[in-house]
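Entry type: protein chain
Record version: 2
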Amino acid sequence: MFVLACWRSATAMRLVRRPFAIGWWALLGSTVVLVMLRGPYDSGDGPAGILDVDSLRQAAGTRPGIALLTRLVLLLAVAALVRRRPPEPTSRVAVAAGGLALGLAATWVTAEHAAVGIQVPVAMASTALHLLAMAVWLGGLTALLVTLHRAPAEDPLPPAAVARFSRIALASVAVLSATGVYQSWRGLGSWEAFTTPYGRILAFKIWAVLLMLFAASYSRRWTARLLPAPEEERVLIAAGHGGSPPPAERGDPEDLTAQAPRRGLHRSVLAEAAIGVGVLALTTLLTGTQTGRADAETAATASRVPGQPDISLTLIPYDTGANTLVGRGKVQVSLSPGRTGRNVVEALVYGADDSPVTIPELRLAFTDTDRRIGPLDAGLVDEHGYWGSDTLNLPVAGTWTMKATVRVSDIDQVTVEKTVTIRQ
């Protein structure tokens, strides 16, 4: 982004190539490790299952597995694009890079909190914008830091490039603020949720972002001081010096008055980038923590109607005919609170030996035949060891038919059903 939008030159490309390559290799390596760990994580086999072919194949069919494999393909496409090394980046390169960036962002969005819960389409779009805006800001800071430090004396970083990045960074901050507020509301659900583990980590992240913005304000001040005077003011300056041109126009070395702003900008950008790394670390913790809204809903369902069960538990046997551990077994489905309205659905799949197993696909649908309602898809999502959803809404009480479609391989699938009573 920095090269394409701020300083489109061969010098800029040469300077940012090394940090770009470091980031590419780090992302490629971590993605490969995550792909290898996906199977053992889902099956609970531990590190011994890393090289298990069947475990890898099953993990590749899950939503997170597909996202990780897609990320690897896109990273190879990025390498092919950068390997061409044009003398100066073209508009065609810009379009291709933008498309690849959107694709990479989608591999995170489809595997995190945005893909489950309320308002999923809006949440996924918001999360993608949030991720891209942060990448533009922090990635641009890294590029700016490198070019400030390593640009050659004969081709220094032009102040206009700094000013362009400053405007882009300001737009990124605006996008981050808008999407961050929405995502905080979606993840928390209430002010009280700040007391949950998710809420506490989010509070730390908010303070870190505010600190980063404070450092950014100093960067904008140094950028303003670094910019040259307007043309008409330069004419007045030249006239004040007896008509002699300003130092930069005489071909002298860079004006000494620009050295202090450059040093100040270097320090403030370094502070921004360092705090940004902390923000990313906190964000990583957030993605692995149950949202405050989900915590609140769990607590609410656990406290309803004392003396009556708050969870409806149903076992559905299945037999696909496949002679494997997962070819037959049962699906344990729990509905919480098991009443009309919104329900949290959790489904565990057990194999022939009654141990939890991982399957590539599980679908659950509810139908009230008497009232001709449904089928209502539960929208189950693979949650790393079980299938879950919190979007099922059952409008009326009574006896519902619950149909489970269990797919254990590319060719072995069966649909079984059982009735379940939904209370008012």
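Comment: Residues 231-254, 300-309 have pLDDT under 50 and may be disordered.
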